Amino acid sequence: MLGRKKRSRPPLRGESRKETEEARIADRRRNSLAQDDLDEYLQHFLTSLSVQQYAGRDLVVSTLNIAKLSEQKLTLLIRYMELFHVDILCLQDVRLFTAEATRLKKRAAALMGPGSVVKVSILTPHADPEALRQSNRVGGQLILIRPRWGRRCVSSWTDDTGLGLVMGVIFHHNSYCIQLVSTYWPIQNADPLLDTLWARAQS
Question: How would you class 148 by CB atoms within 10 Å of its CB: exposed for 0-12, middle for 13-18, buried for 19 or more?
Answer without folding.
Answer: middle
